[in-house]
Specification:
There is one protein chain. The chain is mostly helical. It has helices at about 5-10, 20-35, 40-55, 60-85, 120-140, 155-170, 175-195, 200-225, 230, and strands at about 110, 115. It contains 9 helices and 2 strands. A two-stranded antiparallel sheet has the order 1-2. Helix 2 (about 20-35) packs antiparallel against helix 3 (about 40-55).
Length: about 230
């Protein structure tokens, strides 16, 4: 029995490439910013790396694009295990509620069974403003990114969305994990742009190493932020 190759999978996923992948990257970026549940936000980030991998195929050899995808997924895996260790940002299991009575919880309001952060309306407003700016800029006849031709205009949309929304996600939160996701989105946008300028394997390895190193840094900051002494002191 012959297992499908990368090229076989790309043929099967052909309908998800191009503007479909670019719009999927845009949607997942929005979800990463507005979703307050770490599990869902990480799932959106992992899905974003999948669609970004399809975009990298337009610039790189598919086998090199797979390296980008795997580096992103390994980063998500590191964040996943880190988030589990800190109980997804909630109260540690071995800390009693009265020990955290001096810790101010995130302000929220109840909507049915859901408890929604009060910052969500502001996040939605800022995301809508950024989406308007992205789409209006992209639709300008004279808009073009260097080294990206008209035939790859969907890459311009994805790069613009990842860079702008990544920076927005970074500045909207003081939580290391959520801020780290914003940095990852910005980095993916930068890598897409840089891959249009330089397709060397050396830079690909360097940027993949940067992604994994950044995941370790974010994991460390999350652990320090949610360590028991930091919560109860």
């Amino acid at each position: 029995m012959n297992f499908p190759t990368i090229f076989d999978w790309l043929e099967r996923l052909d309908g998800l490439r191009g503007f479909t992948a670019a719009y999927a990257v845009l949607v997942t970026a929005v979800l990463v910013i507005i979703i307050w549940d770490w599990r869902l936000a990480l799932a959106a980030l992992a899905a974003q790396y999948f669609f970004a991998g399809l975009l990298f195929v337009d610039l790189l050899d598919p086998r090199l694009a797979m390296v980008k995808l795997l580096a992103g997924w390994f980063a998500c895996l590191i964040l996943y295990f880190t988030a589990r260790q800190v109980n997804w940002g909630g109260r540690p299991q071995d800390v009693a509620p009265d020990e955290l009575q001096d810790v101010a919880p995130e302000k929220s309001f109840q909507v049915g069974p859901l408890r929604i952060p009060t910052s969500l309306p502001l996040r939605l407003l800022l995301v809508l403003v950024m989406l308007w700016l992205i789409t209006s800029q992209f639709q300008r006849p004279d808009f073009a990114l260097p080294a990206i031709g008209d035939s790859l205009s969907h890459l311009s949309l994805a790069i613009l969305a990842l860079v702008v929304l990544g920076l927005l996600g970074l500045v909207l939160t003081g939580e290391p994990l959520k801020a780290g996701m914003g940095v990852f989105m910005f980095l993916t946008g930068f890598e897409l742009f840089y891959s249009a300028l330089d397709q060397s394997a050396t830079m690909l390895i360097v940027l993949a190493a940067v992604t994994l190193a950044l995941a370790l840094v974010v994991a460390y900051l999350v652990q320090m932020r949610h360590a028991i002494p930091a919560l109860v002191d």
